Hints:
The complex is a heterodimer. In chain A, 56% of the residues lie in helices and 1% in strands. Chain A has helices at residues 16-53, 64-70, 82-91, 127-137, 140-147, 173-176, 178-183, 191-196, 202-205, 209-221, 224-236, 241-247, 255-268, 271-297; strands spanning 153-154, 157-158. Chain A has a two-stranded antiparallel ribbon with strand order 1-2. The N and C termini of chain A lie far apart (58 Å). Chain B is mainly α. Helix content of chain B is 73%, strand content 2%. Chain B has helices at residues 3-33, 43-50, 52-85, 91-97, 106-117, 122-130, 139-142, 144-170, 173-181, 186-214, 218-222, 229-238, 245-270, 290-307, 309-319, 335-342, 346-377, 383-391, 398-408, 426-451, 454-462, 467-495, 499-504, 513-521, 527-555; strands at residues 34-35, 39-40, 86-87, 286-287, 320-321, 331-332. A two-stranded antiparallel ribbon of chain B has the order 1-2. A two-stranded parallel sheet of chain B has the order 3-4. In chain B, helix 4 packs parallel to helix 14 (290-307), helix 5 crosses helix 15 (309-319) and helix 20 packs across helix 22. The longest helix of chain B has 34 residues, at 52-85. Chain B is globular. Chain A binds chain B through residues 56-61, 63, 67, 71-73, 75, 83-84, 87-88, 90-92, 95, 101, 163, 221-225, 271-272, 275-276, 278-279, 282-283, 286, and chain B through 43-44, 47, 50-53, 114-115, 118-121, 138, 140-141, 224, 226-227, 235, 238, 242-245, 322, 324-325, 521-522, 524-528.
Amino acid sequence: VSCLREDSKWVDFQSEEEFELAKKKEFERKEAHKLAVDKGWEEGLKLIQRISANSRYFTDSASKPPHDVAQGNAVMAGMVIDFYGWTYVEACKDKETGESRMGFVMPRGGTSVSVDPVAVMKGTKRPELAQAFVNFLLTRQAQMIWAMPPQIESGQVRGPKYRALRRLPVRRDLYEDELSLSQMIDQETMPYEAAKEFTYEYGLTGKLFTPLRTIVRCMCIDSHKEMKSAWAALIAADFPPKATAKFHDLSLVSYDLSLEKVRGVLKSGDPVAVAKMQGELSGFFRTNYREAIQLAKEGE
Amino acid sequence: MNKGLAWFLMLGVTALFGYFFVYPVAVVLKEAFYIEGEGVTLSFVGQVFSNPVYVEGLLNAFLLGIMSTVVCLLIAYPLALLAHRYLFPFKKSLSALILIPLVLPPFVGAVGVKQILGVKGALNTFLMDLGILEIPFDWLGEGRFWGIVIMNALHLYPILYMNIAASLANVDPAMEEAAQNLGCSPWRRLLKITFPLTLPGVFAGGAIVFIWAFTELGVPLVFDYTRVAPVQVFDGIKDLGVNPFPYALVAVMLLISTIVFLISKAILGNSKLGTAPRPKGRSSEKALPFYKGLIVALIFFGVFFIASLPHLGVLFLSCGEGWYGSILPERLTGQHFEEALGHPLVVPSIQNSLIYASGSTLVDLVLGVAIAWVVVRSNIRGRALLDALVMLPLAVPGLVLAFGYLILSQEGKPFSWMIFGNGNPLILLVIAYAVRRLPYVVRAAVAGLQQSNITLEEAARSLGASPARTMKRVALPLLGGSLIAGAILAFAFAMLEVSDSLILAQQAEHFPITKAIYTLLSTLGNGHELAASLGVWSMLFLAISIIGAVVLGGKKGGLFRM
Lengths: 300, 562
């Protein structure tokens, strides 16, 4: 039985042709899947490139983007944590009309929904009291303080005293209970529904979490100046194909290379090798962006 | 000259300085030159130079340093010269007023700057109202390099001003009069006589301004200018995981700063000013006709006004409401002040800062006088080295020293005794502040001693006064003005020190002002307004103490003039 393999199935033994066909189909399926993964990875990186090219700066301060958007400094939008955004929407409300000059949306699809954790510290002096507080946070009363507008009291449930906190309760039943839902300030936001649209396959990109940070750093942050100039040149020349392709050249950070080479170097823990790779990647993107400017100027 | 005492002072100061400055910096720099298990390496530093982003960052920092110094000089020299030559209306108050911009930390001023230079900020609205601008211009986004240079210059020119003013005061009027007598034109006299004679002040102040601007972190962060070495260090240190390159970058910056300092020292050393005869007691100030005097007064006020615009921005933010797309806030309100005062961080933080800053100023004064005495009045070997050593804190970015202290003050480490059992970092912060501001006091004391005539001390000694009595009755009064100036600077900077305060104060009840402001800034919604309110309180406080000291110093014969 020449066709016996480790992953043979019973149907494979019907005939030689069936077996070949099944093998071919399996091969094609894997090929197609691989192609789709490669393409998905590439499209994702390209999207990150385009968003970065339009962005003013990168920051690790979570309250900076909403403040800058509120002050009109980041002309269009910034990425924020939900309640940061909502707080500034609230702060930018016109006293008379009640309308805010700022809005907050959760873009569909790629938005991950999570809550901040609360826990009792190890070695705390009064663990029972601390645990009691954690338990309190999970009561309906406490959960609704996060979600209600200020100065509202209905029955046993009381909102915050001064300002709306505009955080999302973690208890799922509160979104299913009509009374609670009607008391919330952000009624349209159904976090458990929104979270369903976020697809994440750990098997495909879990290992790429750390490499992705390095890639974004080299592709967007370190070379931001060149990237923005290239993007401006592309816009001015109406995206000529060669220049656009150069801008989006991701050949050093393909799915396979990211998984093997980038991840491998990062995992080696050798700081010199890591810095060398970062230098190479940054250099690669900087050169690409500069060449894209040249190509765009030539109209190619 | 007591050689034994000189040696004792030098060794004592060196030991203290080695323990509290060199050691923590070395702990941090170890990261740049040491691989666990492999030993000392230069590969990290080498890698810095092979990475074009880092090289560009260093170059940009260097250019920022040079240009900031040049613009500072362009502002400070004419002002100092005008103040030296002429009497004009409100001279005393104006001379004090123009020193004030130095005392606001950039990250508080930044809050005001963004209100003014933002796309929907005051400047754009003003220009559009005038019809000069059609669509708003993105000053912060587009004007990065020069924006930072101007902000640096407007913040740092008082340093050069003070140094040049002190130098001018020591130029022997006879020199200038001689040139004038021999038919020299005013411009030629300025270029050939006055300017060269004041070079020591220019270089002393210029070196400080350069190193400050070269290592400045706050202002580039306001402009989101990331391709500059200090910001790269800051971002790198925050990187999770072990990354030796920010430390390697710090080592390179330290080297550049040290070289700049040594060059300025070398130029100062060649100057004959130190041995020039002491100026005679008469004043060379000329009273200006009324309208000319008024113009000079307006120039002084204009510089102060422009330099304090960020501070004004902070003021308006603290007492205004609805400042968006308008030149000034739409409404005035006391609400932010009220809320800030009620905030549990605010009042204690002012108390804490006062204690920390006074303590560190006291330490600086004692050490500063001792060091200056060894450097200027003794002839023991290695005193120049001591002088160079105590200037090094200027070259080390505050963040690096702060990290060194943080590492060493963990439980079980050598500095852990400096934090009290309840977590009060009093001693740690007093020492950290004192070390970083010591150079200003040393420079002030050295300048004062160099310029006060040693023959006066010798006369006292030859008439039978003891060394202690000579110090007390002759030397200290003669350098009092310089010393007060240095102490005020040290105090003001300590009150508003950023890096150590942010990193080393970890419990809210021990927060100094800057950490309280920083914490308030991240309060969602009205955090900037609350932070501005505390900023205004601290500015007011510092302005009063500085003006007070200037007036006080003025009564005793001039703060910056001998």
